[in-house]
Amino acid sequence: MSLIKLDDIHKTYFMGDIALPVLKNITLSIDRGEMVALTGASGSGKSTLMNILGCLDRPTSGEYWLDGQEISKLDNDGRADVRNKKIGFVFQNFNLLPRTTALENVIMPLGYTAAHLSQKQMVERGVEMLTKVGLSDRMDHEPSRLSGGQQQRVAIARALVNTPKILFADEPTGNLDSKMSDEIMRLFREINEEEGVTIVLVTHEMDVAMCAKRVIKLIDGEIADDEQVKERRR
Description:
Largest sheet: 6 strands, mixed
Shape: globular
Radius of gyration: 18 Å
């Protein structure tokens, strides 16, 4: 069953009287539990597409259905509500608060989306997530005391703390060396296979894309290829 369905999505930016089409005729669906990579060169439209999928932006035209809800006509508050309830994000630059412990970084979203939880319950949830990503011994460390790979694990734990339906990862290995990149991609696969979380990776690196089960390639704002990965990178 589709978690995501896009029907003839277009996105055009305007600079005065000049129209700049970025996405054209995007029609696709992503099933629950899939792990999909969006690839393409710089300027191909993959980040714009992720912003629409992640409810950070809205299309110029077309329909976007997420978990049975039509999203494209929602206002900013409506999209924010969907993001808080259903979506987790992991970014290339980690986006952690610098003078805040790993545990405090992880539980921060709960203050906005899970007000019904007590502080004790929030801490327990955060501990569970950090343990899941292998950082049970780093919970009181601030980001400056963590390696790049460890900081990205904290960011992943933070993205998962609200038990999202879907996790978006935008160039998640871009600031990591090859060893750390491999570890983070193994972690994403575990989350996808063991927890059933739908994952969408945005990357220009084909070795990262080949860790997914399906690769969608964009060229000049259009889908140029959409294929299942026969031999996933391990």
